Amino acid sequence: MPRALSPSQVEEFRERLCAAAEHLFAEHGPEAVTMRQLAAELGVSPMTPYRYFKDKDDILAAVRASGFARFADAMEAAYHSESDPVAVSEAVGRAYVRFALEQSDAYRLMFDLSQPNEADYPELVAASGRARAMMVAQAQGLIDSGQAKGDPEVIAHILWANLHGGLVLQLAGKLSPRIDPSALRRAAFQTLLKGLARDD
To answer: What distance lies between CA 168 and its chain's CA centroid?
Structure first.
């Protein structure tokens, strides 16, 4: 019979397993990674992961929830670091980009795939909701200050789609060598801001 584990021991192993899974899932795709491979990565028996997670989908949801939580933490810290609405949006955007570039495995798993049963994982729903709420909050700040006109969710998605699209090209090495990604993001934000401030 397996020995009883303390809550801290359970949490520590879950975090180790999720860290290993994040890299393997991002490198090979979740469908190509087995529970046996995850166990081998940590040097434990093939059945050990089942003491902590129901199945591989459960692990994937935990990995993605952890990514979204770290992502939301970064954007929330950036949001509260400035007071001017445009500076707030720029700070949130920089935090978004920094996370995507420094934690690219997590970023890919968060946005390059979805789980058909995401609603079954409350932690994943809550963490992704926090990130989405932060994108909407910075858009609302632009509206409240007169820098943008329109629906905050629509504006958030316009800014989000622009950031994400540029990052996908950058991470895939598809940007022209002549293009400085940071300069491109600044120019795109200024161009979008001009359009979002128009009445028509």
So the answer is: 13
Range 102-123 burial, b when 16+ CB lie within 10 A, else e: ebebbbbbbbeeeeeeeeebee
Indicate the length of the chain as a whole number.
Answer: 200
Between helix 152-171 and helix 181-196 the angle, nearest 10°, is 160
Matching fold, domains 1-53 and 60-196: no
Where do the domains of the chain lie? 1-53, 60-196
pLDDT digit string, tens, across residues 46-95: 999 999 999 999 999 999 999 999 999 999 999 999 999 999 999 999 99
Q: Which residue's structure tokens are 């393997």?
A: 24
CB 137 within 8 A of CB 79: yes
Question: Quick one: fold of 60-196?
Answer: Tetracycline Repressor; domain 2 (1.10.357)
Read off the pLDDT of residues 115-136 as tens digits, 9 standing for 90 and up: 888 999 999 999 999 999 999 9
State pTM to two decimals: 0.91
- Say yes or no: domain 1-53 is CATH 1.10.10.60: yes
